[in-house]
Amino acid sequence: MSAEFAQRLEALLASGKETAMLRYSLGKSYLDAGNVLVARTHLERAVELDPHYSVGWKLLGRAYLELDDRTGAREAWSKGLGCAQARGDAQVVKELGVFLRRLDKAPE
């Protein structure tokens, strides 16, 4: 996503249109641009707004992992896995299961 797109999303946020999807989109945009700290902040807010947002948890785990916070990644992915299982979202269940297994196998 481009910087221009992120600016438009930031403008929506500034106008008071805060939603979990908007925060997720901002988080993804910043994560894709390599601004992981800002991404993490938006993604944390996304799952705060909607604690059942399994895809938000999935991306938040990635942000934590990129910040070398394996504990944060594990917690985010575990919460996301529970949400995805409760909603019957088989694809996210599968992905998060893989991420957690890889985390278990990766050297510290």
Task: Report on this structure.
The structure is a single chain. This protein has 108 residues and is mainly alpha-helical. The protein has one domain (3-105): Tetratricopeptide repeat domain (Serine Threonine Protein Phosphatase 5, Tetratricopeptide repeat, Alpha Horseshoe), CATH 1.25.40. The protein is built from 6 helices and no strands. Helix 1 (3-14) runs antiparallel to helix 2. The longest helix is centred in the last third of the chain and has 18 residues, at 70-87. The chain is globular, with a radius of gyration of 14 Å. The N and C termini lie far apart (32 Å).
Query: How would a textbook summarize the main sheet?
Result: none
Q: What would you call the structural class?
A: mainly alpha
**What is the helix content?**
over 70%
Distance between the termini: 32 Å
* CATH fold category name: Serine Threonine Protein Phosphatase 5, Tetratricopeptide repeat
Low-confidence stretches: none
Number of domains: 1
* CATH architecture heading: Alpha Horseshoe
What's the order of the H and E elements? Answer: HHHHHH
Q: Give average pLDDT, whole number.
A: 94
Q: What is the radius of gyration computed over CA atoms, rounded to a whole number of angstroms? A: 14 Å
> Which CATH first-tier class would you pick?
Mainly Alpha
Q: Please report which band the strand proportion falls in: under 5%, 5-15%, 15-25%, 25-35%, 35-45% or over 45%.
A: under 5%
Q: What's the name of the CATH homologous superfamily?
A: Tetratricopeptide repeat domain
